Structures are given as C-alpha cells and as structure tokens.
Amino acid sequence: MQIKANISKSDIDEIYNISKEQFGENSWTYEQFIDSYYSKSTQIYVAIENLTIVSFMIVQDNIDDLNILLIATKETYKRKGYAKKLINFLGNKTIWLEVRESNFDAINFYLANEFKLIGKRLNYYKNKENALIFEKKSIA
After folding, report:
1. Residues 57/68, Cβ–Cβ less than 8 Å
2. Where are the domains of the chain?
3. How far is residue 12's CA from residue 69's CA, in Å, rounded to a whole number?
4. 66 neighbors 57 (Cβ within 8 angstroms)
5. What is the second-level CATH architecture of the domain 2-136?
6. Is the pLDDT assigned to residue 140 strictly greater than 70?
7. pTM score, two decimals?
8. How many C-beta neighbours within 10 Å does residue 131 have?
9. Cβ-contact 137, 94 below 8 angstroms
10. Residue whose C-alpha is closest to residue 106's, from 40, 26, 30
11. Is 22 helix (H, G, I), strand (E, B) or coil?
12. pLDDT tens track for 68-112
C-alpha cells in the first residue's frame, strides 16, 4: 500500500466514483472535487493498492491545524486500515472534522483513533441532519 499526496487530475474520476459509492446522493459533485484539486488550501491524499486508488482524503490546511473535508474508502477495502493510514500520514497536527450524526461507523472509527467529540452543528447538511465535530489534538 502506498500513500500519495500529489495526485493527477485524471485521478479525480476514481476518487469521485468512490465518493458516489460511499455517499450516494450525499456525495460531493464532480465540480467540488475539481475545485479542491485546484485549491491552494486543500490537499488530496490517496491510498493505492495494486495501482488502484482504494481510499482518499481531502484536507484543508489552515496553517495551525487541518480540517478533513472528506474521507472515504471503497467498500471492498473497508476495515483494512486505509483510512487510518491516511490520517496518520498527516503527522502531528491538530485535526478537525465533521461527521453526520447518523454515521455510526465513522463516529466509532474516529473515537477509536483518538478523536474527541467537541461539539455539534445543527442542521449542517442539506437534509437538515446535524454534524458532530471531532478533534484530534497534536501532541506537543
């Protein structure tokens, strides 16, 4: 398994397909992925297995901390450590993220990986679902 931080624009198709598989109608649009690719404040990381992208993470760098905007793994590769390796690749910085209140698998994953629940955003998503805010503090 390889973690790659500098993807090519042609990788967006694979990343978009993983997002559609995992999030369905709640997936980002293709244009949002393209915008993230060109943004100076975001970085797209991918986990590659046998020359195939199996997991990705989009991160906003806020200088002092990082915000995971989106992370997903292909269904057949879930629970094999790809998402954990992507997060660990970020190193020792404080990391923030939001997750749907109903996404119990993700919530359990973050709690098991040293994230702490620190708040809630009411009606955060299009369907008015709340978002839980998690933080993983850097080790000083």
Report:
1. yes
2. 2-136
3. 15
4. no
5. 3-Layer(aba) Sandwich (3.40)
6. no
7. 0.93
8. 18
9. yes
10. 26
11. helix
12. 999 999 999 999 999 999 999 999 899 999 999 999 999 999 999
